[in-house]
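Notebook p. 47: complex prediction with uridine-5'-diphosphate.
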Amino acid sequence: MHALVTGGAGFLGSHLVRSLLQRQAQVTIWDNLHTGREKNFLAVRDQIDFHNADIRFTTPENAPTSRFGKFDVIFNLACPASPPHYQKDPVYTWETSVLGIHNMLRLSEMHGAKLLHASTSEVYGDPSVHPQPETYWGNVNTVGIRSCYDEGKRAAESICADYVRFKKQDVRLFRIFNTYGEYMHPDDGRVISNFCVAALKGEAVPVYGDGTQTRSFCYASDLIAGILALSDLPREKYDGPINLGNPSEFTIAELVGVLERVSGKKLAVKHFPLPADDPKVRRPVIERAQKILGWQPQVALEEGLKRTLAYFAGEI
Ligand code: UDP
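Predicted complex, structure tokens below:
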């Protein structure tokens, strides 16, 4: 089995590449190192075929040839996913989401490959339904600072659905809820990396707003198990987007408490203004994944945070 992982040098891509190699897959990575890092795949460099490719402009016609030949499966993970990173260059984010998936759909058509696309809980926006099942259509500000990502990912879902409907292609969508773990960049900017780095440096942890907003945090290995289960699913059993995330919900203030227990340190908190359109709540309904994939997360937040803190200790 030959897998293409776009974004394979990024946080989740690095986990996925390793899991695929463990399954004896041949792996090609396309990554333009916009947020991904070469150091993330150095340890497996000899086993993979890496190309510095930008999916906005990599079409089936000009795509680099892999030494492993045609692709059997494409995992499209390329896109900045942390709010400060995806907002830094919103046009880039939109193009990566929209033009990128169009290129990957055409590529999968040409190779006869199955395509798994990384969508996001951001398609639900600031949800007015809680928790969020896949049947919820979302509450997204079309012109806000998050819309380059949210609407980009929504547009990507829509073209994927049309490739299934009109071209009968094998395209599967999964919606990733907040995920954390090893291979995150220390400057990633998301809450768990910011908190871990601050705690390790002995600095106050930055809480945006009053800390009453909630998120539900999934450890990376759990998420990858879900993606692989979706990839293994017989085609006829796929019936639309699947939420992948951990349904244990915490306020950001509670997250500080969990980190205090894990680090064994009393942490000072510094408050900053809440960014615009920051979702007030988020928790996945994962019944579809449980039923169709037989999947559910195994790693509790304390355990995952312990491992993640140890990883960041070696990074900073
Ligand atoms: N947040 C925070 N401190 C940080 C980074 C984020 O309090 O240093 C908050 C942020 O406002 C949001 C939640 O933590 O309510 C999760 O933010 P993150 O950027 O990790 O991901 P999001 O779920 O917003 O995409």
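Notes: The pocket of uridine-5'-diphosphate is lined by residues 83, 178, 190-191, 194, 206-208, 213, 215, 252, 274-275, 278 (CB under 6 Å). The domain at 191-214+248-283+301-313 is CATH 3.90.25.10 (UDP-galactose 4-epimerase; domain 1).
Next step: compare against the earlier run before touching the bench.
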